[in-house]
Amino acid sequence: MKHLLSVADLDADDFEELFRLSDSFAEVSARRIPKVPALRGRTVVSLFFEDSTRTRLSFETAAKRLGADTMTFSVASSSMRKGESVRDTIETIDAMGVDAMVVRHGSAGVPQRITDWTDVSVVNAGDGWHEHPTQALLDAYTLRGRFGSLAGRRVAIVGDIAHSRVARSNVVAFSTLGAEVILVAPATLLPPSLDGWPVKVTEDLDGVIDSVDVLYLLRMQRERMTEHLVPSLREYSRRFGLDHARADRLRDGAVVLHPGPMNRGVEIAGDVVDRAELAVVDQVRNGVAVRMAVLWSMLGAGTDLVAEPDEQQGAQQ
Fold it and tell me: Which domains does the chain possess?
């Protein structure tokens, strides 16, 4: 795999191979010294033109656990503040001899465009409203851990679908793996067109909540909105938020996911966060293993996948 730009580039076999690799790297992360020298001598740079906590730290942790060197780009302290273009920034960093770029940008298509300016591997870590492929991978991997397979499972994705790159990637991923996907949102928070989306749509969360295996909650992305799309956050929470009454209606074994950051009291009540069905911590933990699998798939050809514990501990001395 040279790049990971879109979930649509992966078929079911690709998902399973990445999940198999993620299983191996999850074992590595559980060791006393959670590192292997699989990418020693490689350099991974994080190019985040938008703010991020989970994705940026997850990729940097993944790269370091694989033994790679890491570089972090910050717009606030870069020459972009002086007018340097994205292309010139990419070509400057490329000239330093990096092997992979993990890119987040506020405009759709930027990671794809970067592949025209460099020969290194590029990972899309979120581009505008378009996609977030590694989030979809870690979400699917988390559900695989709970259910064994997504085939035949019912997944409700709830909230701000219109502005969510996570929703777009997850619809493709979950459908590819055999799940039935239901979008639950007011019409104002749906994309202008759903042509080609393999989904059902409803505005009635209470009508589906007791029949789904997965409830995937999205935050209101107010930073991407240019107009008022719901009467109020209180009204939105009343119709689409997860409170105790709704959580009690979930079927046995159902899982609640959230990509973060979470707005407690809006899409989920604060006193519901600690319930057992909420798998947010699993998502974060699994994100490191999945991103290790992605980076290794791009850069690890010809290296040992996972060194034995005594070998990898010796490599740290």
Answer: 7-129+286-309 (3.40.50.1370), 133-282 (3.40.50.1370)
